[in-house]
Queue: 3 jobs
Job 1
Amino acid sequence: MSSMSPASPLDDVEFQPGRPPILRAEPPGDAPNWAAAHREALRAVVAEHGCVLIRGLGLRDVAGTGAVFERLSTGLMTEREAFAPRRTYADGVYSSAQWPANQPMCMHHELSYTLEFPGLMLFACLTAPTEGGATGVADAATVLEELPAELTERFEREGWLLTRSYNDEIGSSLVEAFGTDDRDAVERYCRANTIEFDWQPDGSLRTRQRRSAVMRHPVTGRRCWFNQIAFLNEWTLAPEVREYLVEVYGADGLPFNTRFGGGDPIGEDVVTVLNKVYEANTAREPWQAGDLMLVDNIRTAHSREPFEGSREVLVAMADPVRPSDSSPNFEVTAR
């Protein structure tokens, strides 16, 4: 047990192996005001430990949860380039990504392929699933240290490449990702964000963007494994899902895939290594209704485990960071 400070009205933060730091708060009755009063203390815990799960706030509705999100952040972000659709509850307040309940969302850093990504992720559980569905977390600096040096050195040299093929069936549609289906507006966005784009004969869009795989934390200076190389790779998909998508869309038309920055395919063996190191460093705690979780999006990767039953977790992205703040960006030429 480790107290936040002798004078802090907050309860002690609990540290147990295999679990994220947990702070048990007395039911305040007015969660937004409680969050505002303890904003700096909570953010200090996140700065020191990478994340914290706050239990006892009794969050139950969108309005109250959104108010808590706003009081704990420096500003909520509008999501762009989403890999999967979300429901929008309010400005900057979203559902978790719509992903099959029986399929895991493997470890990743939110929007790590964009030129402006959230420094802070906020999650609030309104309805907990009957089984599974935890939001796991993993320390990105530790993951980097435990990955094979030869592999991480290659990714540091080359970066990583994300390829996307937009359709209206799998993943985010063009409108969901860019906020518009106007070609000129999409092309302007791509050019401004160093995304290579190619319109297909059927009118669909394919894109490529090269990004850094390792990010230096803008506050601590620690080097972090910061990307979505494993999660968005074809080999992370369940075999039957991958086979179906390849059959329907072709190997080059998958909704998303990742490659080495130089364009070489990433083999199944590499993805297996990445996911094994993530799993070895995963901390998890089952959601309880009313829980709030704050995650440093650079220092800490997060996942979503398969679940059964109804699961409602609200999400907000906050405190925007640009790679130029902490790492050089790999650029590609837009077409």
Note: The CA atoms of residues 169 and 255 lie 9 Å apart.
Job 2
Amino acid sequence: MDLDVFVSAHRAEWQRLEQLLGRGRRLTGEEADELVALYQRTATHLSLIQSSAPDPMLTGRLTQLVARARATVTGTRRSSWRDAARFFTTSFPAAVYLSRRWWVPAALLSTVLGAVIGWWIAAHPEVQAAIGAPAALREMTQPGGGYETYYSSHPAASFAAQVWTNNAKAAAMCLVLGAFLGLPVLWILFQNMLNLGVGIGLMSSAGRLDTFLGLILPHGLLELTAVFVAAGTGLRLGWTVIDPGPRTRRTALAEQGRAALGMAVGLTVVLFVSGLIEAFVTPSGLPTWARIGIGVLAEGAFLAYVFVLGRRAARAGETGDVERSDLTAARPVAA
């Protein structure tokens, strides 16, 4: 393509578009239609120049012109409470539901791994000896020991904030590091299950497994579910790098990345609820059955939220990505 000839042929159209944009909202109906047509043609011109005869100065000028025109044609969109309501009633539960084929198996396999580690530690005194000295292990597992006092070691409000921050960081790491083929996510899951398995094994060997479960289950059900969802989403993102499907890898990663970003926001709220339970319910004087019951109710509410509300939203076409009107067109539309 002869760039000079192309510019000479279309310069008048670009100047007319700039003139119409300079008038703001003071356009007649015919002028508004003309602006839309010129915007579409200029977007096509920009695409042709970028692919056939890239010129930095001309590309920069037309990019700015197309961006101004698009903002004028589509209007400026502001976030509102409607967006927040839509996110929590459709986008987030749909995204969690659609990733269930990743996080549900991750949850099941991780739970089995944690139980196996706990059994192995409880059944082998030599493994317990490798973890710590007998006196240190007794201090951790005895009534009033480290495992029990941990949940009341700080004021409830500050403890809730600390727990929330740590868990949100772990979930964010699963989501972000998933792009590295999911391998760091598997390591994070293993570390979580190792810590859980050590607690199960040591308290079981001391004959106090029921006490340990009474401390873990109230908040752990919801907390671990959030971590499993984050891990499943990270693994799904990692698999997208390997197999993007019919889409280009860039497009597939962009879609999954936006969904993962929204997932991070939603899981932050879920982990905040879990942190409140861990700070105010777990160390409370409520009977064990009541504390566990609160944890089961919270877990059941989240699962119902995902598998009822999320499934309904997914069947309606929701994917967890941003609204189509907020997406930039993959290719400019020709006039």
Note: The mean pLDDT is 83.
Job 3
Amino acid sequence: MATISDVARKAGVSTATVSRALNGKSTVDPALVSKVREAAEELGYHPNGLARNLRRQETAVLALIISDVENPFFTSIARGVEDVAQTAGYSVVLCNSDENADKERRYIDVALQERVAGVILSPTDVSSSIERLRRRGTPVVAVDRPLAESISDQVLVDTRLAAREATEHLIAAGYERIGCVTGPAGVRTADDRLAGYREALAAAGRALRLESRAEYRASGGSQATRELLAESPDALLVANSAMAIGTLEALRAAGLQPGRDVGVVAFDDVPWATLIDPPLSVVAQPAYEIGSEAAKLLLARIADPDLPPAATTLGARLIERGSTRRG
């Protein structure tokens, strides 16, 4: 069985360099990392995970705790995290909190028990407790939604501005009775998108606000849309792609066509958005980049716990399609 010394000799480096390279340390030159990994692969060398964990008191595993694994936005985030983590020699364990604070806490407990190297978290709300992670010294990065603790690393999108721009687009397209279908109160993204909607209406001198909140799911979107249809909206801003499915179902059940009867713009550019008739106008968020940036932040924090906190805010872009064109 090959040893770390065998890998070091074959790669022409020290055993310490082999260890750092295989553990994903950012201080190792990428060319050397490649050379070490090639040598390890040729020799069939695998690090002794148990011994390494006992020395480092952690595993080469990252925990990713997201709020809805069925939402393509979060699966794209997960892909971004995994691609960066795998390149650095880390594995990723995916946990689905289901927008449930108790499930989130249980997964944090599991992360601590398994001594993961770090956690990437889409918090259920701004009061999500990560104090236990901090006490253990486990690095954490928040994605999509901020944590109340300002010292946390985080990667966010300016979703309030994006919602405002989407609503402005509906106003410019000539819609008069614009409604907003958004998520539960207290969920930061749901609150921000509603705030952006309100800002756009206020700036345009529009006093009429048609608003409905529901769960961030297709069933919630359907329920919220049915409630708003009683107010005869001629356009809807929908807070995420899962809710958009429910919105489109409710419109179809009411005999209404997107664009012609009710303009629709929804958050997230999912694959099916261009397959429906008419294609769906969307606010495209850089989900993959959110994940990859979060993983890079987390790996940097693992390598150097004394780095200052980093907050990255990415932009979203409006993609206009047929669902917001009258005719």
Note: The longest helix spans residues 287-303.
